[in-house]
Design goal:
Elements lengths: L1 H25 L8 H13 L3 H20 L1 H20 L11 H21 L9 H10 L3 H14 L7 H23 L5 E7 L3 H12 L4 E6 L6 E10 L3 H11 L4 E7 L14
Antiparallel strand pairs: 1-3, 1-4, 2-3
Helix pairs in contact: 1-4, 1-5, 2-3, 3-4, 3-6, 5-8, 6-7, 7-8, 9-10
Length: 281
């Protein structure tokens, strides 16, 4: 119950930040951003329909699609956003200051604030009920990275503005889209560990393992393998180290066997003894 309450508060905070970003930066400066606000800005010159009507209509349609594809649990979490976001959008408007900014600054800060809001909501397994639903659907169906899908879909939304705006407005909108994607990515990764997963193939594997245990105080996993070309039996050592320890590990390997075959990948979310327990997104 406590976790549900905390998640609900985070979802509300995320939607509040999203509404602030839209009302302070996106709509006043007619920024062709992504999301339903960006669609509203792009369509307004063509149909002259009020921004809030377009935004609320899109939220309802996308919510239904998300319910059908992502399931009831997602829908239950998202319905809070679908209700709170339009309310925040309408209620906070009279209380926000009118800013006189360079449009580029409005685009950057609008994208960052909106991205943080969307990222907070996504961390709770929910959605703002807007254009972040398609990226979540693509993530579920094709395992594509959410933040990358957000950038692509939002960029397509911005290019929709070419119908009624000039190229300068589109380029300005792409700045906002990029900032939104970066902010979402950082929020989703926040709390995870910055580590390296290293696979080591060496005839001196035991010496390497001993030094990893003694000097780095990290665990290792040893697997049996066979060379595809030589058909010779090999041992493969897997070790996950903190990013700061990675140069030390490479020094150990080179010191014992400068011909060792080493494969390194980033590990952004590591759980278990010896590592901090980050949030699972």
């Amino acid at each position: 119950m406590r976790i549900k309450i905390v998640n609900s508060l985070i979802i509300l905070l995320g939607n509040l930040l999203l509404a602030i970003g839209v009302q302070m930066f996106i709509l006043p400066f007619s920024i062709l951003s992504g999301g339903v606000a960006g669609v509203a800005v792009a369509l307004y010159p063509l149909f002259h329909i009020d921004y809030e009507i377009i935004i609320n209509s899109l939220i309802i349609v996308l919510f239904v699609i998300g319910w059908l594809v992502l399931g009831k649990e997602f829908a239950f979490k998202t319905i809070l956003s679908s209700i709170s976001y339009p309310i925040f959008l309408s209620v906070i408007s009279p209380y926000l200051p009118t800013l006189e900014l360079d449009p580029i600054l409005a685009s950057v800060y609008g994208g960052l604030v909106c991205g943080v809001g969307i990222g907070l909501v996504m961390r709770c397994g929910a959605s703002t009920g807007g254009m972040d639903i398609p990226p979540l659907i693509l993530n579920k169906l094709f395992n594509l990275k959410v933040s990358s899908c957000v950038i692509v879909i939002d960029a397509l939304t911005v290019f929709l503005g070419l119908v009624a705006y000039d190229l300068g407005a589109v380029l300005l909108g792409l700045v906002s889209v990029y900032c939104t994607g970066v902010a979402i990515d950082k929020v989703l990764d926040f709390g995870g560990t910055s580590s390296k997963a290293v696979w080591i193939i060496s005839d001196h594997y035991q010496d390497i393992i001993d030094r990893i245990h003694n000097e780095l105080e990290r665990g290792t996993t040893v697997s049996d393998a066979k060379g595809g070309y030589t058909n010779m039996a090999k041992k493969v050592v897997l070790c996950v180290v903190d990013a700061k320890q990675y140069p030390l590990l490479i020094n150990i390997i080179n010191d014992l066997d400068n011909k060792a075959f080493v494969i390194t990948t980033d590990a952004n979310d590591v759980h278990g003894e010896g590592f901090s327990f980050g949030f699972k997104v």
